[in-house]
Specification:
73% of the residues lie in helices and 0% in strands. By secondary structure, it is mostly helical. The model has no long low-confidence stretch (mean pLDDT 93).
């Protein structure tokens, strides 16, 4: 998987999971998801986000935040949107997948 940005291996692994989760939870194909991640990363960088910010949120929450902020362009509070749409807590499959990937790094 190739992104338009450079980062450390942990951040790249996190965004590879975001691509996977965009497909699993929001129905994007890999090419669409990579494009969204590239655009989201650049947008967030311009807003002052650093790679550590993504690790604080973890892959599932970054995925949901991307969908909320960058695709839906919601005007309500993220936490309220996530709660109302059942995206607030990551599914066990997302947690297990995250642990599988980051347990190997």
């Amino acid at each position: 998987m190739k992104f338009d940005f450079k980062s450390d291996k942990e951040t790249i692994a996190l965004f590879e999971l975001v691509v996977e989760f965009l497909g699993t939870y929001f129905g994007y194909n890999e090419q669409e998801a990579i494009m969204l991640v590239n655009n989201f990363y650049q947008f967030q960088k311009q807003r002052g986000h650093h790679d550590d910010d993504y690790h604080h949120d973890a892959a599932y929450r970054v995925t949901c935040n991307l969908q909320y902020l960058f695709v839906l362009k919601e005007k309500v509070d993220f936490n309220k949107w996530a709660e109302e749409n059942h995206f607030f807590n990551p599914p066990i499959e997302a947690i297990n997948r995250y642990n599988e990937v980051f347990g190997k790094l």
